[in-house]
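Notes continue from the previous slide.

Worked example: a multi-chain complex. Inputs as given:
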Amino acid sequence: MTSALEIIGLSIAFGQGNSRVQAVDHASFRVEPGRSFGIIGESGSGKSTILRAITGLNDAYTGEILIDGKLLQARRSKEFFKTVQMVFQDPYASLHPRRMIRATLAEPLEIHNFDQKDQRISQVLRDVGLAPEFAYRYPHQLSGGQRQRVAVARALLLEPRILLLDEPSSALDVSVQAGVLNLLDALRRTHGLTYVLVSHDLRVVAHMCSRVAVMTQGKIIEELSADDLRNQSAKTEYTRQLIQASRGKAPA
Amino acid sequence: MTEPLLSVRNLRVAYPSAHGYSDALRGVSFNIGQEKLGIVGESGSGKSTAGRAIMRLLPPKAVVTADEMRFAGIDLLAASEKQMRDIRGGRIAMVLQDPRYALNPMKTVEAQIMESCHLHAKCSRAEAREQSLAMLEDVHIRDPKRVTKLYPHELSGGMGQRVMIAMMLIARPEIVIADEPTSALDVTVRRQILDILNERVEAQGAGLILISHDLPMVADFCDRVLVMYGGQIMEELAASDLDKANHPYTVALNESLPPLDHKVEKLTVPDHDPCWLEQIQ
């Protein structure tokens, strides 16, 4: 079976000479269709940089990115964005403050020449658990959880098969986070989506994903299943520390 | 029981809005002595407002009333601005959420810690310098001599938070209010920062109010927990009993957290019962 997404030896560096930073160092992983793959790590470990490289926001990478077994060119085609969409971390920053939700949601449809824009917008808003009337509001009239739902709706509009989620719930309260995570999980099942979820919160990753990669200093040091994560049967010392820290106990 | 350090009775805060006043705090009462008190709740529950009201740091248009807000015999509501300057940062200190915004970007670490020491401990510059170096060592900064010459943008998040703790604790306050001191930090650094805070607070015999939305962390760290919702205290309980909470709101908050040790099909999304918003007598 071909993987929905495969990454082989991805390396990304920023800066020149002495200030050169190897943000991602030979990262490789594959995600099967319909599965959810998690990447955890501290800030600066390079986890978001991988997602930005996949979407083409950063094209200065070496290594190979394959979607459905096909190698991606450095410049992403329009077709690519119908397959892969990204949800960003902060819903307070990722929605245009001066545009109505309807305008924000209509933009991808216009770019890709979709018909029946209004129906699609109402449908996608219903899918993410918002009333269609929300299309006529501005972002500042929505709560954090509602905004993140709009951001998810925008990513879903083009009917992608792969969603890249960059810390989708870290700007939200735990009670609101529960709602957004349930929604994402339900959408994955009903639409058969493939997720790559980046988070620093082990709880979120363990709940959402079946396989998890642990990153530190640009390297994927370990890949394990969510069950291993729960049983604390991690191989590397770093992962064990990370699990301990998330459990709120002092590292032994 | 000994006299509490700070006692708050029926604290109310309201902001003027288009339709009269909207209440941010609706009758909050608690005491704190030499202990670690946690305040948990969602955004907008009023936990930070409570912390700021004690420091009298709310914007002037906020209407603050209380039957009593007494700190070591001083009525905080009636205290003059001169008295407050002495209390704020001197006797009650506040550690804020994000060191990137809370430290002055134009001043070196040394200048900021020395300023706090100079103002509140009334010591000479040389003494202040010496004390700030010692304090940086106390918060486990490895090379204090180098760090003290740095500007805030050159510090990592964890280091910045240690500098802020050093700056706040150098005046030997009697109460430390820590408003989400670790939510801007990585999980691996969180524990260290809490341990340092704990160590300093215990060494100086101060009381600590830890404001946070992170239930497991508060349960692990504090002695006593207040759970807030809609500007009121829903429940007060010993931190070790947090998982045996009675109030439906606390139970729902606990359940909405993805568990680490077993798989659940679906997370519980708390329903907010409107009757929780009704005035508790």
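Summary box: The longest helix of chain A spans residues 174-191. The beta strands of chain A are 5-14, 21-31, 36-40, 61-67, 70-71, 84-87, 162-166, 194-199, 211-216, 219-225.
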